[in-house]
């Protein structure tokens, strides 16, 4: 599906495009009701096609939230509860669960809580079985492996999602009656990196990026990894800014090869490059001498 992002006044939107639009009863139900478990949606028709705009203001995608943390057992169970809530809403409003989008990039939640909300998109074509397996595989790689219960839940969900011709309703019904089991992987320590005969291969040192605070009131940063998150939610970011105008997860600096890029992450008060405000999820290349702004906090790029 085609996706883009848009900012309007104090609201941010994820927009999914449907090439051939038809106003069905499902669309009417979606746009005329505030449905529990769903992102609020509006539809704009543009000739034969239509834009479905989902309000993601003050929320972050599941994929972004899990960039800097591992999912716990409690969070995994809350995710399953959210799926159950979405399935119940589909039944109540006569909607087809096959149209739920389960891509982690398009599942949104409040970073301070674990109550995910979903896009209901009539143009969704991927079979539910494939979506569930894809989500299960994604979560399996992001389990908190220091927590045996999280590992057990993750592997059970993966096993059940892999069953042939699975539907969301069937999986949730089986989950309710699932006996407690121990995962064979629980408690296993994962290797830190590639080894060969006991030798650890070190990666060559990569170029670093320095961000210097313009007025000295904020810490300077040295960006070394492939992703550097900025915001005021201390346990979820690399660059912590305790400022009123900063969003919990505000922006991101990412490295691709020898180049660095700045991205706005659905911030309320904006991410700026050389005075220009970036659009939501817009990625712009950084160069030495650039002025970077997170709300009213300013940095100069060095290196």
TrEMBL record:
What's the name of the protein? FHA domain-containing protein
**Which segments constitute the FHA domain?**
228-278
CDD domains linked: FHA
InterPro entries (UniProt xref): Cell_Proc_Reg/RNA_Proc (IPR050923), DUF6382 (IPR045962), FHA_dom (IPR000253), SMAD_FHA_dom_sf (IPR008984)
SMART domains listed in its UniProt record: FHA
Q: Which organism is it from?
A: Anaerosacchariphilus hominis
A Pfam family of the record is: DUF6382
Its lineage opens with:
Bacteria, Bacillati, Bacillota, Clostridia, Lachnospirales
């Amino acid at each position: 599906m085609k996706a883009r992002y848009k900012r309007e006044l104090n609201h941010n939107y994820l927009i999914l495009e449907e090439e051939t639009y038809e106003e069905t009863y499902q669309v009417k139900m979606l746009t005329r009701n505030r449905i529990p478990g769903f992102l609020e949606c509006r539809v704009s028709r543009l000739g034969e096609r239509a834009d479905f705009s989902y309000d993601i203001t003050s929320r972050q995608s599941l994929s972004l939230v899990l960039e800097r943390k591992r999912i716990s057992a409690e969070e995994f169970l809350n995710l399953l509860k959210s799926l159950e809530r979405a399935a119940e809403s589909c039944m109540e409003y006569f909607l087809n669960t096959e149209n739920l989008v389960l891509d982690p990039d398009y599942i949104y939640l409040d970073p301070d809580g674990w109550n995910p909300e979903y896009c209901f998109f009539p143009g969704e074509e991927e079979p539910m079985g494939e979506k569930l397996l894809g989500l299960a595989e994604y979560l399996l790689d992001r389990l908190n492996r220091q927590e045996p219960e999280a590992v057990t839940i993750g592997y059970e969900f993966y096993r059940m999602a892999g069953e042939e011709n699975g539907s969301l309703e069937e999986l949730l019904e089986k989950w309710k009656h699932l006996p407690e089991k121990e995962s064979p992987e629980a408690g296993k320590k994962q290797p830190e990196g590639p080894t060969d005969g006991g030798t650890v291969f070190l990666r060559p040192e990569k170029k670093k990026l320095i961000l210097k605070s313009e007025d000295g009131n904020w810490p300077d940063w040295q960006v070394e990894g492939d992703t550097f998150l900025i915001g005021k939610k201390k346990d979820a970011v690399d660059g912590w800014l305790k400022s009123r105008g900063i969003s919990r997860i505000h922006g991101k600096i990412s490295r691709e090869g020898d180049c660095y890029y700045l991205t706005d992450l659905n911030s309320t008060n904006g991410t700026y490059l050389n005075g220009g405000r970036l659009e939501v999820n817009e990625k712009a290349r950084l160069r030495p001498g650039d002025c970077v702004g997170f709300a009213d906090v300013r940095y100069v790029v060095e290196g």
